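FIELD: query
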Amino acid sequence: IRDKLVTGVQTCALPISRLHRGDGRIVGIVNLFERMSFDLGPTLAHWMAGEASTVLQRIVAGDRVGRTALAHPYHHVILPLAAPEDALTEMRWGMADFAHRFGRPAEGMWLPETAIDARTLHHLDLLGLGFTVVAPNQVAKVPPPGRHGRVGAAGPVLVVYDGPASHDLAFGAALTSADVLADRMMAVADGGLVVAATDLETFGHHHRFSERAVGHALF
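FIELD: result
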């Protein structure tokens, strides 16, 4: 079971992507995490340090170039359902692990299942976290592409991901090729930044070789 788990992590979390020409020849090898935002749960990172250290090192190396990593609570806890002191501890421990792992303070945090309420928003502000990512059905009005939302005049920024585009990454054909991916994002860009969110296992696991499409699109 452990060997299969190691293989699974190396398959779906490997940040390295090969770039190919039309004739199949490799023309470059890139680290996707230099240009793709991500979060890495502390408990998984701790396991990877012992069982898949090379993959973990490449993930950290990607963040050193792009500052692309987001913090994550120490466990995969639905924070609004936790006791206030437990939720705050989970967030603090997650930030401490992030600083230890990536060598810098966290700027934003991915909340498990993007679950958020007024108390969690207050905790983000209290801990100095500048932003989090939420789903479009969690806000009363989705801001236009390139714009972010806030609750009140100050506090953490709410980065709202595009629901249909994210669905097409996870379950549709958006990762068929770099051209298809670029066209899908451009279809909703309207001159602004499009944010799509999906599980990391989407790349190379649910959609075989799709990390190559991402690599060609980003690099």
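FIELD: remark
Residues 4-11 have pLDDT under 50 and may be disordered.
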